[in-house]
Amino acid sequence: MQYTVKKLAELSGVSARTLRFYDEIGLLKPAFYGENQYRYYEEEQLLMLQQILFFRELGFPLNDIQRIISSDDFDKIESLKTHKSILQSSLERTDQLIRTIDKTISHIRGKFTMRDKELYDGFDPAKQREHEQYMLDKGTLTQKDIDESWNNVKHWGKNDWERFKQKGEDLNVALVNALTHHLKPESDEVQKLIQTHYSWVKTFWTPNHDTYLSLGQTYLEHPDFREFYNQYHPDLASFLVKAMKIFARQNLS
Predict the structure, then answer these.
(1) Crossing angle of the two packed helices 223-230 and 209-221, in degrees rounded to 10
(2) What is the pTM of this model?
């Protein structure tokens, strides 16, 4: 069966504009162009679009997806098996988080008492270690920075962590508001927000010019960070990093 851009958009939930963009950058070419210059897609393209959507769901940037699916040794079946394995792991963790939520609700209502450690069941300390190692490898952090960050917060209780998380939430919402109101990264309003961001980061460790820029690149390149910022706005990470570069140039050495 053949699909036009409009029909494939309706079938897949991917906008016609995005499908045309994928064609322009060579990520997903149609099977052929009709005499009317309409794009037509067949089963092979539908399967490839599914692969692209799986990779996007896992937080891969488009240039990485293009590199992976265009490689000579790309195997659709093996790729699907990998996606399945990752999703199963994610489901197991999600199930654990749901059970923790249910326990916490019952705990708050007084139905039973949770042990303190149970409050954090399902949260993944391995992810924290992975992020630390990633930034160590990139040179964003040194082991001294990591030790300093844990030393700064080792006395924190639950309320301290909640306040820190809320500050980050408020900051990201404010940045999205600036972005959607078309404020420039170099504007005074945005730079004040970046000063807040820098102070927020300093809660853990103190970046210099180079390490602050490297942190920004981590926001852009690591799938977990891209996924995190995309939940606020698809352009938030790039907007934030542009503003961080200006702040670093003007304020850090």
Answers:
(1) 80
(2) 0.51
